[in-house]
Write a structure and sequence with these properties.
Layout (H helix, E strand, L loop, with lengths): L1 H13 L8 E6 L13 E8 L3 H10 L8 H8 L14 E4 L9 H10 L7 E5 L5 H4 L4 E5 L2 H16 L3 E7 L11 E6 L4 E7 L10 E2 L6 E6 L5 E7 L5 E7 L2 E7 L8 E6 L5 E6 L4 E4 L1 E7 L5 E8 L4 E5 L4 E6 L4 E9 L2 E7 L6 E6 L2 E9 L9 E7 L4 E5 L1
Parallel strand pairs: 3-4, 4-5, 6-12, 13-19, 20-26
Antiparallel strand pairs: 1-2, 6-9, 7-8, 7-10, 10-11, 13-16, 14-15, 14-17, 17-18, 20-23, 21-22, 21-24, 24-25
Helix pairs in contact: 1-2, 1-6, 3-4
């Protein structure tokens, strides 16, 4: 511990020239004797401030380890140590020569701090601990220092990771494995803390290359590229002090569903062929991009129009044209209960229920032959049921009297 304090003090001095850096020092287990078993023995000895290097160094040299090890309590208290500044990048370096001894859960507290975006994934240095990673590895990036040289090397590595510039480039590959795809959202997701850390909209810069991002190297990420369907690259490790290149295969083409009616209110359900699981709800007459592949379409016309196995090719626009519907106006001299039916492979399927409280309504129907089955709303006899066949032509407006 004596050597560790000396090395830490030297490191504090070495940070004097770093711009835009504020430090603080919280200490635990130093105010009460071990026999007091004080699990709230934790104190912010030096608050955050720029230029407080000497104050921190003097405090480190003065303290002596005396008591228990309330790691979870100290991490929890650190939430209020950080100044309230949304533009700051908050980092904790936890240095301990013992494991949690106050029945707290340091891992749960660390996850909570990260989920609240109070801190990035903490660094943990175990001094002289054997197997400390079993308990403290989930708190943050864990390092074990068995010798003074270990501690010095680890501390330098952590500071380099925190302070040095790290850049990242995401290559969205086309079908020829070239990084030409772009204009799609991406999320860097930190799974351990259940947290979306970064959100970007992919861009090709003025030099024709994917734009460079600043992604913190303190975490391992899952990258989600929000194509349709999404593409995930798991366990992306951003190496500090390097230019990182992450690749994802995202060859895309476009799908355009059109109707002569031009009614954008009609939607199209798009699913991967054979799955039946909806990937996207697309508007008519508006192209959208999809990964290269085969898709099933269910267009919410009346009745629904199903187009199976539509192929989307790279850099091509696949067009699917839906016939224009006809406008059918139903009039009646009395209120009716009834519906519009279509013959679906020998079975009658109801596609629309008539409004039983009005004497006139207009329904947009796809071209085809239908049956209207109805009776008077006031009738109590099924024998009063009427069946009337109608034929609808594209773009035609007809009036049907019931």
């Amino acid at each position: 511990m004596v050597v560790a304090k000396r090395i830490l003090s030297e490191m504090i001095d070495s940070l004097k020239q770093v711009q835009n850096l504020e430090m603080a020092l919280r200490v635990y287990g130093h105010q009460y004797h071990f026999n007091d078993d004080n699990c709230q023995d934790s104190r912010l000895e030096v608050p955050f401030k720029s230029g407080n290097h000497t104050q921190i160094r003097n405090k480190i040299n003065a303290i002596q380890p005396r008591g228990v090890t309330p790691i979870a309590f100290s991490l929890e208290k650190s939430e209020r140590d950080f100044p309230s500044d949304p533009n700051s990048r908050n980092v904790i370096i936890l240095i301990t020569d013992g494991e949690e001894s106050c029945h707290g859960d340091p891992c749960a507290v660390s996850r909570a701090l990260q989920q609240k975006r109070i801190v990035l994934r903490p660094f943990v240095i175990g001094i002289g601990l054997v197997g400390g990673v079993a308990q403290l590895g989930c708190v943050g990036s864990y390092y074990e220092a068995q010798k003074p040289n270990d501690f010095q090397f680890i501390l330098r590595t952590i500071l380099r990771n925190v302070l040095d510039r790290t850049t990242t480039q995401v290559n969205l590959l086309d079908i020829d494995n070239k990084p030409t795809e772009t204009d799609v959202a991406m999320t860097f997701y930190y799974p351990e803390a259940n947290l979306s850390q970064y959100r970007y909209y992919h861009t090709i810069n003025e030099f024709g290359y994917p734009d460079t991002l600043d992604v913190d190297p303190l975490n391992t990420y899952d990258l989600i590229v929000h194509t349709i369907p999404p593409v995930t690259v798991d366990k992306v490790r951003v190496k500090p002090n390097e230019h990182n290149i992450i690749e994802a295969a995202t060859p895309m083409g476009s799908l355009l569903v059109t109707s002569p009616s031009g009614d954008s209110r009609v939607k199209c359900l798009v699913s991967q062929a054979g799955t039946g699981s909806t990937l996207n709800v697309q508007s008519m007459n508006a192209p959208e991009r999809y990964l290269v592949g085969t898709y099933d379409l269910e267009i919410l016309t009346l009745p629904r129009t199903r187009v199976p196995r539509v192929k989307v090719d790279e850099r091509q626009t696949t067009r699917v044209k839906v016939p224009a519907p006809g406008a059918v106006t139903f009039t009646r001299s009395f209120e009716v209960i009834g519906g519009i039916f279509v013959n679906n492979i020998g079975r009658m399927e109801e596609i629309y229920q008539l409004n039983d409280r009005t004497l006139r309504e207009t329904v947009m129907l796809q071209p085809g032959t239908y049956e209207v089955i109805y009776r008077s709303r006031l009738s109590r006899s099924m024998r009063s049921t009427n069946v009337q066949k109608i034929t609808v032509k594209p773009g035609e407006a007809v009036t049907i009297k019931l």
